[in-house]
Specification:
Helix content: 25-40%
Strand order of the largest sheet: 10-9-8-7-13-12-11-14
Number of helices: 9
Shape: extended
Largest sheet: 8 strands, mixed
Length: about 575
């Protein structure tokens, strides 16, 4: 079979059949964990298959018997992301070959479930180990070989005890131990396990010391040129910390301000902060001294500027970012954020609009193959301080109103650089164009131009309309003057007629009486509303005002019972 040839040629689990284990027989499945091979009984003979050739293994639902099915990688089907790189290359190599036969699957049946169930578990475990081993080999293949640590023997070794290393050596547990400074590097040694991690001075890119002021930890941090392996992870940032107070300490309980215990606790915590800051500061000074003594001048600890700190979101959560002499960092949260500013060529601010509360900052590196880093949700009040800091760092910046697709943007920039026109101020036709990164603010300039054009056109329209309106106003004024003259004449005539005709005294007196009666009626109604009503079950007072009504009609309005049966009513006129 094709797998047998690969096992002998490419994977080389066994060179000859004499190396087969004794337990491998032609009547049962056997898993060799050491050689990473699975023996399948075929024709009464044990045939080895390397674990990399097996795509998956499953146990279908049993009936009276138990089944075990093994599927293999073959051409004509999707290999998937989990396919080993070596097996994928072999399948691609022999895809068009007609001389090689591929086995797609094997199915085994047994009346006893014990043997097949055990083989299923062993194959699954072997596949898991093989994947982990391949992943580790891939990561270690990219690692740069570090020099061996040379211990410092002729002097007292600078030591920092009872500290915690991040990331930890093992998953799910903290790594506490000591950090010693030696001739060409530092060594962290775990307290219980005895495992160690070496950080070479030559591999240190940046070293930071962050004292604890309002934070709950004090730390030293090393940003590395080349990543190293810590446990099963490949990391480029290593830090060693000590907690001043527990991060999960309960601060919900509120005590009295004048409580002696509270005051004593605060004083004790303040003293602890000062002691730890002094301890770490003395240690960093000793490390710099040892490194310089052995010609490692690159180890110099930098302290972040707390006065220039601002809030931003470089990963998934809002953190405090602090500039240093050479970097922009966040060291207290996981994962740490470290950007070397001398590697940054340009900074672009996105979503800079009137009325916006925050904006995004995009850091573009001088190496255009690296994707830009974004810090989102920065407070708009920090804009002026950040621009001043970038000017001090000799880094250019632009402002934009929209968010850009930076993957496509960097592809376009790489194409411009390859053609040699990225920094040119003219295109191929000789037309002016913004050089370099200034094209990022072209959209805003265009918007301003369009707004300016609209304003100019609006002014022209306004001037034309004002001229037309002035002409119309002049015509209207002339018409109004002639119309006013006619009105004056007509008003004069009407006034003379009114004075001539005039009303009689009797009519004026009658109108005055009617007006007085209406006023009196309104005032009486208002008084009735303001006066509280009297509660009575048997009688009710009804006050009715009649105006210009005969006495006979007044009595006719109340020919019935007032207030119900047995009630009496009084009419006031």
């Amino acid at each position: 079979a094709e797998e047998e040839g690969l096992g002998a040629e490419d994977f080389s689990a066994y060179r000859t059949s004499e190396e087969f284990p004794y337990e491998a027989k032609g009547s049962a499945l056997h898993v060799d964990m050491e050689r990473e091979a699975v023996f399948l009984p075929i024709g009464g003979q044990p045939v080895p298959f390397h674990i990399s050739t097996i795509k998956n293994v499953m146990m279908p639902d049993p009936d009276k018997a138990t089944y075990l099915r093994l599927n293999f990688y073959t051409p004509g089907q999707a290999l998937g992301k989990d396919a080993p790189a070596q097996m994928a290359a072999v399948v691609a190599k022999h895809k068009q070959s007609e001389d090689i036969a591929f086995i797609r699957e094997f199915t085994f049946r047994s009346m006893s479930s014990t043997g097949l169930t055990q083989a299923f578990r062993l194959i699954q475990e072997l596949r898991k180990r093989a994947k982990a081993k391949a992943l580790k080999e891939d990561m270690e293949a990219e690692l740069v070989v570090q020099a061996k640590l040379v211990r410092l023997k002729d002097a007292r070794v600078p030591r920092l005890a009872d500290i915690e290393m991040r990331p930890a050596l093992g998953a799910g547990r903290k790594s506490k131990g000591t950090l010693d400074a030696h001739t060409n590097g530092l060594r962290f040694t775990g307290g219980k396990t005895g495992e160690h991690v070496d950080v070479m001075y030559a591999n240190v890119k940046h070293a930071f010391f962050q004292p604890c002021h309002s934070d709950h930890i004090v730390l030293v941090h090393f940003n590395l040129h080349n990543p190293i392996m810590i446990g099963k992870k490949k990391v480029s940032d290593v830090q060693f910390i000590t907690e001043v107070v527990e991060a999960s300490e309960d601060v919900g309980s509120r005590g009295s301000v004048y409580d002696p215990d509270e005051i004593e606790s605060e004083q004790r915590e303040r003293k602890m902060r000062k002691a730890l800051n002094r301890k770490f500061q003395e240690y960093t000074a000793k490390v710099e001294e040892v490194a310089k003594r052995f010609n490692f001048t690159n180890v110099e600890f930098d302290i972040p500027y707390r006065d220039l700190a601002f809030q931003g979101t470089p990963n998934r959560e809002m953190v405090t970012l602090q500039p240093t002499v050479h970097c922009l960092v966040n060291l207290t949260e996981t994962p740490p954020f470290v950007v070397t500013m001398r590697e940054v060529e340009h900074v672009h601010f996105e979503r800079c609009q009137v009325g916006s509360k925050n904006f995004d900052m995009v850091l573009i590196f001088k190496n255009y193959d690296l994707p830009p880093k974004m810090v989102s949700a920065v407070d708009m009040a920090q804009m002026d301080d950040m621009q001043e800091w970038l000017t001090q760092q000799d880094i250019t910046y632009t402002l934009g109103t929209i968010s850009l697709n930076w993957k496509g943007m960097m592809d376009m920039v790489r194409g411009f650089v390859a053609d040699g026109i990225f920094w040119e101020d003219e295109d191929e036709d000789g037309n002016p164009r913004p050089p370099g990164w200034q094209f990022l603010s072209v959209d805003d300039d265009d918007d301003d131009d369009e707004e300016g054009g609209e304003e100019d056109s609006g002014e022209e329209e306004y001037q034309a309309q004002s001229e037309e309106s002035s002409e119309e106003e002049e015509e209207d004024e002339e018409e109004d003057e002639s119309f006013d003259e006619e009105d004056e004449e007509s008003d004069y005539d009407e006034e003379e007629e009114d004075e001539a005709e005039g009303q009689d005294w009797e009519e004026l007196e009658r109108e005055a009486k009617v007006a007085d009666k209406q006023r009196d009626q309104f005032e009486a109604e208002e008084d009735a509303k303001a006066r509280p009503a009297k509660k009575s079950k048997t009688s009710a007072e009804v006050r009715v005002f009649f105006v210009d009504m005969p006495q006979s009609r007044k009595r006719a309005c109340f020919d019935g019972n007032i207030g119900g049966p047995g009630a009496t009513g009084r009419i006031s006129t």
